[in-house]
Write a structure and sequence with these properties.
Rossmann fold, 7-stranded mixed sheet, alpha/beta, about 250 residues
Length: about 250
């Protein structure tokens, strides 16, 4: 099993168009690290972040004394992470479905990206994450909320730096569809498609993987009318919500 074919081209282009934006996000990353530590709720020493991109959150937590390991599929993002990161961060290039780790971690996280493949793919990934976390450890995952993408975001367009994007919703597959292009090359479009889950749906899937949801945290949402991002929305209107998982022992 390998990750969907659209993934590498999409994230390569996204990185190419937005690679300077991290310098503007230092304050956000500190707040996000605060949130992660609060949501975990106990002291933890080690963490594996998959889909880690250029490693922004890993660097922030590494600076707080957490032993960070990252896993990312896209070579350009891994190289950027290595250039920007301390050698104390263990950075891996690899596929979620095939990469192996020789140890377990207190926390395993997947931020802003769960839902790439089919339901079977997601179930396989949950089982792998269960194997990567210690018996008393915690898994946290961002889950895309179908109500937001179906009823709020679909049809909306945005501009970010040199990139433009438009959202749509695949009703049959219950997937958010996010299409990007460079403003000077509107015919060269790259698209990501992520499966959205209700709480009941993702809870059922987690149970099949031997995991139980013990916490649910609503995320933010885009206020398209005012062109502003709202950092905390309701569970029904957030673009994604974070689930906190424990192993069923």
């Amino acid at each position: 099993m390998t990750t969907n074919q659209w993934v590498i081209p999409f994230y390569q282009k996204q990185f190419e168009w937005l690679q300077d934006i991290e310098d503007e996000m230092t304050g956000y990353m500190q707040k996000e690290a605060d949130t992660i530590e609060e949501q975990i709720g106990v002291k933890f020493k080690s963490m594996l972040d998959i889909g880690a991109g250029i490693g922004s959150i890993a660097r922030t937590l590494d600076a707080r004394g957490i032993a960070m390991t990252t896993l990312e599929l896209v070579p350009e993002l891994v190289e950027a992470a290595k250039r920007r990161s301390s050698k104390t961060i263990d950075i891996h290039l690899g596929d979620f479905y095939t990469h192996e780790f020789a140890k377990q971690f207190d926390v395993v996280s997947y931020f802003d990206g769960f839902g790439i493949g089919s339901d079977d793919d997601q179930l396989t990934l949950l089982k792998r994450m269960k194997n990567w976390v210690t018996d008393d450890g915690t898994i946290i995952i961002d889950i895309y909320n179908p109500n937001y993408w179906r009823n709020i975001a679909a049809g909306k367009a945005m501009k970010i730096d040199v990139a433009e994007r438009i959202y749509s919703f695949d009703e049959v597959g219950c997937r958010m569809v996010d299409s990007w292009w460079h403003k000077e090359k509107p015919d060269e479009i790259v698209t990501q498609s992520l499966r959205c889950y209700t709480i009941d749906e993702i809870s059922t899937m987690c149970n099949k993987a031997g995991l139980t949801i013990i916490g649910i945290f609503p995320g933010g949402a885009m206020d398209f009318d005012n062109g502003a991002y709202v950092e905390t929305a309701t569970l029904s209107t957030c673009l994604s919500y974070r689930i906190k998982l424990k192993k069923n022992l």
